[in-house]
Amino acid sequence: MDLNLIKARSYYYEFFAIPFFFYENGAKFSLWKEQLEFLKSSPISEADAKNFEILQNFSFEEFRREQNDVLFDFSFVNVPTTASFYDEGRDEGRMKILITNTLKKSKFRRNSELCKDSEDFVGFIFYLQSSLLRDEAEAQNGNIFLSTELFASVINEFCDHFIGLLKEHKSSKFFRALAGIMESFFALERSLLAMPKPQKDKNIAKESINAKLYRGNFKNAKHNFEFDE
User: Looking at domain 3-228, does it have CATH number 1.10.3480.10?
Assistant: First the structure.
């Protein structure tokens, strides 16, 4: 695959990862806005161009309020943010094992002091995929197929239902626009990797939410992200 295309895919995954972490100040959000300016210059679809405009108009305070409403507020049903929840209706399940197995084959490791979330947390998954793709583009090791493995075993399996819940949440405006961009991107990913969209009879996440109110697994206000190599 063309190296520039691999780098672009890496950039998109990092762009998707950042909004799912909690930040006490707007520094990281400002850097994310710079990424947005770059990506919106070449949108995948016409709808994406509109969604980039919506995201561009959000201030950090507006983003933080919606992030709390959609992901963290214990007073309401939150959008689940672990791949395992979309697979089994619970956190830290089979998907965590699959992600850990891929992680062990790479040079990257989760720094548990800086990243309190589990390996199946969507923010961590997207950051890991971004790092794997960047590493493949730079050809710094021989594991050039790990990003494909992670997509096939994990991302491809949960992303559609995750996007659906982001779009459906009553407080979602920022995340609805982000989900629209994710939808276009993952359709392109499947095309590039020649992988079909999974056909699933059940939406396990929705069934689990309807059975009992889902409470986000938010552990620490000082969520950061860093890999040890």
Answer: yes
Q: Give the gyration radius of the chain's Cα atoms.
A: 17
Torsion of CA 206, 154, 103, 112, to 10 degrees: -10
146, 105 Cβ separation under 8 angstroms:
yes
Give the 3-state secondary structure of 106-137: CCCEECCCCCCCCCCEHHHHHHHHHHHHHHHH
Question: Does this model's pTM top 0.90?
Answer: no
Over residues 167-182, the mean pLDDT reads 97
Write down the domain spans for the chain.
Answer: 3-228
Cβ neighbours of residue 201 closer than 8 Å, sequence gap 6 or more = none
Region of 139 (left: φ > 0; alpha: ψ -120 to 50; beta: rest) is left
Rounded Cα distance between 82 and 80, Å, is 6
